[in-house]
Amino acid sequence: MDSNFILANAQVSKAQGFPIVYCSDGFCELTGFSRAEVMQKSCACKFLYGPESSETIILSIDDALDERKDFKEEIMFYKKAASLFWCLLEIVPIKNEKGDVVLFLASFKDITDNKAKAITEGKREERRQGRLKTGSSFSSTRLRSSTVLYHISGHLHSKGNKKRKKSKIKLNKNVFGDPPALPEYKVADAKKSKFILLHFSTFKAGWDWLILLATFYVAVTVPYNVCFIGDDDLTRSTTVSDIAVEILFIIDIVFSFRTTYVSKSGQVIFSARLICIHYMTTWFIIDLVAALPFDLLYAFKVSVVSVVHLLKTVRLLRLLRLLQKMDRYSQHSTVVLTLLMSMFALLAHWMACIWYVIGKKEMEANAYSWDIGWLHELGKRLESPYDPQGEVNGTGLSGPSLRSVYIASLYFTLSSLTSVGFGNVSANTDAEKIFSICTMLIGALMHALVFGNVTAIIQRMYSRWSQYHTRTKDLKDFIRVHHLPQGLKQRMLEYFQTTWSVNNGIDSNELLKDFPDELRSDITMHLNKEILELSLFASASRGCLRSLSLHIKTTFCAPGEYLLRQGDALQAIFFVCSGSMEVLKDGMVLAIL
User: Fold this and answer.
1) Mean pLDDT across 349-370
2) Residue 422: CB atoms within 10 Å
3) How far is the C-alpha of 64 from the C-alpha of 66, rounded, in Å?
4) What is the 8-class DSSP label of residue 209?
5) What is the pTM of this model?
């Protein structure tokens, strides 16, 4: 495509002549006209016509524009200085995504020099072969045929010789292939592979929730297995579910390598290479460590040492991904409230596991003389004392069951975190007291963090209800201070309650004032479309309707209210959208609208 081109609007009527909406600098240099002189003129470029311009081609140009089809022809145009030049004019209609022609692209190529050479050579050929007109026609036909045969033979021979294929002349796709596709005028589609997942798609949102549940499962089971189960694999009943979670984490890594993300500049990145680089430099290491298949060792009956159990706690780092995605759900109060309470319960679970490990280690270190630890006290209360010769809470040979011990541990940590401890499970040793102090400090912090957010969320959930009662109280205080009569008071309260039930206390003008005028016009046109679709505005232009929509104000009248009285200054035109209205004179009904 040459740089000498113009763009014209194809969506206007024929009478308006398809006005030019853009012209290139090359076109201005070629014709001598400035951009201001060309804009809004007809796409047919009648300002370039002259006495030597072919009338037949001019009519063909008009027909091509009217029928919105391709056109390509040589024509003689005139520059602004009245100088002639031969031009190869090509007009191509441009369609949008709906298939409608919206623009014309007209390109201009100066072929004056080529035309002069062709005319000179033609005259020489005529003088030389003037007596062989029939033979000349036959020779030209043979020449064209041999050219076509040359191209075809070169194409066929190139199949057996790849090196010669590069040197052969390429076939003209316009002759032997499909015609070139017409250009389209639309927003460019993002190039993405069908194997790329959109980070905002429904499938990805559902997958994220599944990974969230798997992460909470890991956060609960891993500390419990490390602290309560230990190396005793026989008591584990979650091996199958643990392996399933590991498989989910591995699949999530694969998805993360194919999921789009938003760059710092706000663009959605679809490039597979950039996605891989971004993921490798952010969360890949954490996700990889969390997805290591430790539980496959249990499935294959491989002996596992305690170090492997401790390594599994690295999976808890996936909770950092949860904090990253909290912003996405921050506008949903119920979701945030549930997540905060879950985090609080999860912290209590972790503290319960540590509380049990402290009691267990102290009892193992002093198996024959220890009788003051919290586990020892719990065993005596439950009438299941620990036997110094037996295993500590392992196989049931001594001490309470794991279920009872875990419930007691969780009871103690929740009591300490919420500062409502009753003392029936208490810290006796130095290590237990130090842990209790830390638990109380963490509990104070959690009160400020979790329950502070919970209070804010609950207030936000009931903010509209609170605002309604505040406005009602202010209105009643206003009536009481100014001693308004009962009738006027009733009218004010009824109007307030009616408007609140309709718009829920939202002032649309206050809400939309910060939006740009273009967006506000579109919003108000949608809100007032019932009025703007009246036959009264049928002949109004879109610009007029947009301007009117910005000045329309919706009001509500309670039954029995007067909208206008005789003698009032008319400051607006009223349209009855719903309900009915009476026209009264001296108490008599003249009309019902």
Assistant:
1) 84
2) 9
3) 6
4) H
5) 0.56
